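Run folding on both entries below.
>entry_1
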Amino acid sequence: MSVSVRIPTILRTYTGGNAEVSGEGATLRDVLAKLDSDYPGIGARILDESGKIRRFVNVYVGEEDVRFAQGLDTPAPEGAQISIIPAVAGG
């Protein structure tokens, strides 16, 4: 299934500067695996060593925060937009 993945500025060096790329997979896990296959190294910036979404990275499938859905097993329906958003801190 084809989806679009929005890439934050900090990770665009992996995608050749593209702010949005195509992805494929039935679940978020599948989409991220394909994304890392197409853009080597990007997966390590999204997932930690144990394969979980990094603490300071938020991922949405459509409008839904996957942390409150099924995590990496959240379905990625055809045409969905996946947004990767690094947390921003400041004071």
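>entry_2
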Amino acid sequence: MQYKEVAGGICAPKGFAAAGVHCGIRANHSEKYDLALIKADVRCAAAGVYTTNKVCGAPIKVDRAHLKDGYAQAIIVNSGNANTCAANGVALAEECCELVGKALNIDAKDVLPASTGVIGQPMVIDPFARGIPAAAAKLAATEQGSTDAATAIMTTDTHKKEYAIQFELGGKMCTVGAIGKGSGMIAPNMATMLAFYTTDAAVSPVLLEKALKTVVPGTYNQMSVDLDTSTNDTLIIMASGAAGNPEITEENADYDAFVAALTAIAEHMCAEHAGDGEGATHLITCEVTHAPDLKTARAVSRSVVCSNLFKAAVFGRDANWGRILCAIGYTPGDFSIDKVCVWLSSKAGEVYVCENAAYHPYSEDEAAKVLAEHDVLVKVDMGTGEASAKAWGCDLTYDYVKINGDYRT
């Protein structure tokens, strides 16, 4: 599929505006934006995917209720407090929706809330009562609007994460834009963090939800920083239909093209999140080919990027390929490792380290150069089928422990 990267993030698609402001949720960060608002010009088809953690944030409960009809028009997001395990959590999230509805003159049930930050902390409405009108007044359908919103949702992220692509659909140029946050408490199984997608493609609510749930297993569920599944993981998409393409109401060629576009932007965002893992110095991508089936390909690639021993080896620039093979070996499933071959690759070159599940001669010096680059690719050829998959992770460093040792301070 052909697509082009464009500027503007979530404001690149037609019909969307965004803003970020400081409202005081994070009292020890007086200048940091901590509240983001995203608004569509019209009620949009909308869908969401959420954490599998049995303990989930109050906003997720509200989102699920508000999305029962498949439509939404605004998203309100705060950082600094997860609104999880708070006695008044659901009531507060609902009150935030009421404030947004009043500020934007829309139905409160068309507002989707999200929160990220410390779990189990008390929360009050006062910062939202100040911040929501300010964010509404600042809404802009510009690149800066998207950037401000992307900045407002950051916690331990070291940089904002936003991306947008254009592609043709039904003879019309359509756009998908995204912002996201998440550097820690990220593990496979609706992994992440928070992510918000906008598109001006016309897609029915049923097909939009199906497309999202088709893309997530091979992208967001294939990402890990630390094996901790957050309580607040949320991925929401809104489709305005402003591009003017014939509405996608069935699984046809246009639907396939839309899924391909979502996959492309999701893969980019997953690499952004994993590469910015807490304390990370490397992005690790594992690409499995010739696996016996898709389930095995995905499981093996996840095992490699989740291995703490291998993650530590990458941090030390140690081409300890035995840790890769070990991770493959303890992956659940009935498959043979006899034909497994492994390469370590980066822009500095490539080394072939394992052939047929055994040592393949290589230069340790060349391998160290490969592992010195930020982006490291682990290529695993299982030699037993035609299935393939990718997973994204990062190295394990001293700084990860430092960051999480005083996270609440």
